[in-house]
Amino acid sequence: MKNLITTVLFILPICIFAQNTDYKVSSYKDEGFKAPNTHYIGEAWLNGVLQADDETDFNITKATFKANSTLDWHKHSTSQILIYVDGEGYYQERGKDPVILKAGDVIKCDKETEHWHASTKDSDVTYLAIYGGGQPTTWTEVVSQEYYDSVADQLKD
């Protein structure tokens, strides 16, 4: 009986003061959902890892594009940070030369700067996009397959 009382007195405070486990947990490793072909060519998956709210004024979205896929030209009302976590992709801002970004690369695009990004011809790409809350994307021009192919040819050397 004495052991039972000791055990109860030991376990009861642990149960009473245990941490609340009502956490909202997401994972950037989840594939997400297949995006509708609205502003891109190819195949893409999106995972809304974190959504802006009253306390957090930015979103984090994981995007995965299959090889030979591209977003259209667009701009955001806030700056955007792209963190490349897997594969290789093309990135270009209006008026500048395109570049190849690889896993581990991080690039910041200033607000209202027109740009596009994509997977390369031969590699899928996955990146985390960090950008302000609200409606940050304005689509401006279609990236044609011909233009994408010309960038791929330009950057393959």
Notes on the protein architecture:
This protein has 157 residues and is of the alpha+beta class. The protein has one domain (31-153): Jelly Rolls (Sandwich). 17% of the residues lie in helices and 41% in strands. The protein has helices at residues 2-16, 145-155; strands spanning 33-34, 40-41, 44-50, 58-65, 70-71, 73-76, 80-93, 99-102, 106-109, 115-119, 125-132, 137-141. Strands 1, 3, 4, 7, 8, 9, 10 and 11 form an eight-stranded antiparallel β-sheet that branches. The longest helix is centred in the N-terminal third of the chain and has 15 residues, at 2-16. It is elongated and about 80 Å long.
Question: What keywords describe this structure?
Answer:
Jelly Rolls, Cupin_2, RmlC_Cupin_sf, elongated, Cupin domain-containing protein, two-stranded antiparallel sheet, 41% strand, 2 helices, eight-stranded antiparallel β-sheet, alpha+beta, HNL-like_cupin
What's this entry about, in short?
The chain has 157 residues and is α+β, with helices and mostly antiparallel strands. The chain has helices at residues 2-16, 145-155; strands at 33-34, 40-41, 44-50, 58-65, 70-71, 73-76, 80-93, 99-102, 106-109, 115-119, 125-132, 137-141. The longest helix is centred in the N-terminal third of the chain and has 15 residues, at 2-16.
